[in-house]
Amino acid sequence: MDTTLWISIDASCAVHWDGQLADAAGKELLLYAAEQAARQIARHDRHFFNLLIRKKIQLRRCGQMQGCVTLLPHDIVLNAALLQCEKRSVPTRRLFLTGVLERAFYHLCYSELHLTEARLHSLRFLQAQPQMLAATISELKTNSPAFDEPDWLETLKQADTIILLDEFWRWLAMTDYTLALFLAAKGARQRLRTKVKAVLTEAVGQLSAFPFALDQTEKSLCAFKSLFQDDNGLVIVYALPGNLYKAVRICTPETMDAMSAHSACQSIRYHNLRTDIFHDHGQWIRPWIERLHLYAKEPSLAELEKQLMSADITVVNAAIKQLGQRIRKKDHLAESRRLLYAALYYWTHTDKTVCRALALKVSALLEDLLTDRPVSFPPSRVNRTLLRTEPKTITVDIPRPKTLR
Predict the structure, then answer these.
(1) Is the confidence at residue 214, as pLDDT, over 60?
(2) Phi, psi of 182 (to 5 degrees)
(3) Which residues contact 91 (CB under 8 A, 6 or more apart)?
């Protein structure tokens, strides 16, 4: 059964408790970890600490959950197993729980942030404290799968490399090397890797202030795995052990897509360029990188995507027709369907009549495709497309049977 507790932290980092917890050892463990987390926060980030001491924190100890901690709208949900351990494991569990609570407190105080931003903050916090990082890795290994979170253990194992890459690109984004990389992307594709590596090698030579061995730094920063170029710029992807990635995009400021949102990346402007340093390294960014690989192998998909963004209705109609043919042939089925749905939900035009006509056409095509309607059959008829913002009201006229009185 779940147990709800309330704690508050004062300016001296003392933890005040309200609630019932039958396990005395679990209570002592939680109070100790909360106090240590508060002390670490007060030492390193006063603004964060000032937000924390103003809150009355509702904790829910849950016996049926996957992972360590989850932030919900009204409370922080803790895995009940976090407060249960053998006596010999208490020192390690204290360090581990301190790191878990620090991440939960950070996400609570900055609840507008995406989970990937909270995890990146936690990664920096743990990487700065080797003992706590080692304890966290040890506890996650020992208590798998109860404490498993997607890609988190592998991310912690690569903490030094990820933080190094993040710091390097934050610095590089404010230098002329960004312009050199952007210009390299505009050149011939055949020599792109050589040009990019030459620019990065030169930049690494300016990193005397970084607390890393030069050979280690150069090997990590220049060992990118993939490059993707388009009309707007360049995407550089580092492949890390554990199927992780670190991705950076150099593009023009007007480049706007889902990956340019602040919840997906940190954007740094320098002159007429923008560098996007993506927060995530695993499950959220992986589908986008896979899509970049697909588009690099199949340029026709990228061309269809451009056509769907055209303001010319004839170009858009031609692209929709091609997508329908691709789906029937099962040619890159998932991506073709995704583009077709994108045309239905996101294509706009100043003339709303044109918008409705296109939505009706795509809806009819999707109905045929999703119901496997044979091509030899006449196309189905869709009389209206209902959007989520419109009231769901259907009126049906039923002829009165003559036999009914």
Answers:
(1) no
(2) -65, -40
(3) none
